[in-house]
Design a protein that fits this description.
Elements (H helix, E strand, L loop, with lengths): L1 H42 L6 H23 L2 H11 L9 H26 L3 H9 L4 H31 L11 H12 L2 H30 L8
């Protein structure tokens, strides 16, 4: 057993470093861009003419539909649609690109709600006070609202990132050679599926535990000016 573990560890961990971690990191960065953009669009009150407001309402409807769609359908189905379905309409993507697109859109939909909730948790009086002293919308957003909102959003966003790391195991279904795929291949050769699947579970647990520790220190850092948890 120990000989199998020693021989298999470099292959599994190597697949994690080469595919699983980059897939999760790249997807989460893109997902955060999507989340912030969509959350701002849903929390910002449009100004201007009736046409501008109508266009903004259409944009909000599109964003709401996107969030509903990706939160209401299984991630595995989404992966199959992007990788196996799109070629039927002339859109051919390699497995890694298809994985990034799917994971980014899926995680972005969930993170959007976390960011939106954090933004609306900030009292409107802070917006009003900032405007009263002559600050512009971008200044209010980046100097007053975002620093507070991100502190509130860190726990759910961290949970989404940890969930994304585990969800990368589904990438095996579209031929990406991440950790779970490699463990399956090794199990097919040595006929020890129980050992191999337990091993890969441990490695996922290690990665996620490291992220959880990082989350703890990030929360502690962003809350350093909070007195008595208030």
């Amino acid at each position: 057993m120990w000989e199998t573990i020693v021989k298999s560890t470099p292959e599994i961990v190597g697949a994690g470093i080469k595919y699983s971690i980059p897939l999760a990191l790249i997807s989460f960065v893109i997902a955060m861009v999507i989340a912030v953009a969509t959350a701002l669009a849903r929390t910002t009150e449009p100004k201007g003419s009736g046409v501008a407001k109508s266009c903004f309402k259409v944009l909000r409807w599109i964003i709401s539909f996107y969030i509903w769609l990706f939160r209401s359908t299984p991630l595995l189905v989404q992966l199959f649609i992007v990788f196996f379905g799109l070629p039927s309409v002339g859109i051919q993507l390699d497995a890694f690109t298809a994985g990034i697109i799917t994971f980014s859109l899926n995680t972005g939909a969930y993170c959007s709600e976390s960011v939106r909730g954090a933004i609306i948790s900030i009292p409107k009086s802070q917006w009003e006070a900032a405007y009263a002293i002559g600050m512009s919308y971008p200044q209010v957003l980046f100097r007053i609202i975002f620093p507070q909102a991100m502190r509130v959003a860190i726990p759910p966003l961290s949970n989404s990132f940890i969930g994304l790391v585990k969800d990368t195991s589904l990438a095996s279904s579209i031929t990406i050679l991440e950790m779970f795929t490699v463990s399956q291949q090794i199990a097919a050769k040595n006929y020890e599926p129980m050992l191999m699947y337990c091993m890969v579970a441990v490695y996922y647990a290690v990665f996620c535990s490291i992220l959880s520790i990082g989350q703890y220190y990030l929360e502690k850092y962003t809350s350093r000016y909070i007195v008595n948890g208030g």
